[in-house]
Design a protein that fits this description.
With 208 residues, the chain is of the alpha/beta class. The chain has one domain (2-207): 3-Layer(aba) Sandwich (Rossmann fold). It has 6 helices and 10 strands, in the order βαββαβαβααββββαβ. It has helices at residues 11-22, 54-61, 81-96, 119-129, 131-146, 183-192, and strands spanning 2-6, 26-31, 44-48, 66-69, 100-104, 150-156, 158-160, 169-171, 180-182, 202-207. It has an 8-stranded mixed β-sheet with strand order 3-2-1-4-5-6-10-8, sandwiched between helices. The protein has a two-stranded parallel sheet with strand order 7-9. The relative contact order is 0.16.
């Protein structure tokens, strides 16, 4: 499968690239700064581009079978980069006839996940610290939900670094899930959704 990874230089994106290559896929890593990929690897191509540059996204999506978006915010300030990216990706995929999209969302964004059990997260971190980021993400997801794409919108809670431990659980509302997970496991779940129809055109909350 030919897979474009947007957000390939981020922590989750790098895991996704490595896992896709290990499975034998042809991977295109979309990066604003291609020099972030210093090693040359078989079946890996790096495409230079920017979330706001629709032409670079068009070029990268051409010839792909699926797109995995692991793009995350670089700032907590008010902005529209995630909305712009989603509009550009949807338009490019529609033009190219590519239908499969796995998108990295967040607990409390597009899905109907229950409020975080942690009171600091519920009453301060999400509604105060992340309010601008989540507002931008929700605007982008509104375009996604209105599209005809075969998407899976993946909503993890708090992310940690460390080796994958497996045992990822998923549900629509997030009930019964431990609201944290390792990025390596998140990437593995997202990669699996490229071919798994269980959560097709749904927002899925994941954790342990």
């Amino acid at each position: 499968m030919n897979v474009l990874v947007i957000g390939a230089t981020g922590q989750t994106g790098r895991h996704a690239v490595n896992q896709l290559l290990a499975q034998g896929h042809e991977v295109t890593a979309f990066a604003r700064n291609p020099s972030a990929f210093t090693e040359r690897r078989e079946h890996l191509r790096v495409a230079q581009g920017d979330a706001r540059d629709s032409e670079s996204i068009d070029r990268a999506i051409s010839g792909q079978d699926a797109v995995l978006v692991a793009f995350g915010p670089r700032s907590l300030k008010k902005g529209d980069v995630q909305e712009v990216l989603m509009r550009n990706v949807i338009a490019a995929m529609t033009r190219a006839g590519v239908t499969r999209l796995v998108n990295l969302s967040a607990w409390g964004s597009g899905g109907a996940a229950v409020p975080p059990a942690n009171l600091i997260a519920r009453y301060f971190f999400i509604p105060v610290v992340l309010r601008r980021v989540l507002a931008d993400k929700r605007r982008g997801e509104a375009h996604l939900f209105d599209s005809t794409l075969h998407y899976v919108n993946v909503c993890p809670a708090f992310l940690k670094n460390g080796p994958g431990r497996g045992g990822v659980k998923a549900s629509i509302d997030g009930r019964g899930l431990k609201q944290c997970m390792h990025r390596e496991d998140l990437a593995a779940f997202m990669v699996a959704q490229l071919t798994d129809d269980t959560w097709l055109r749904k927002c899925v909350a994941i954790g342990y």
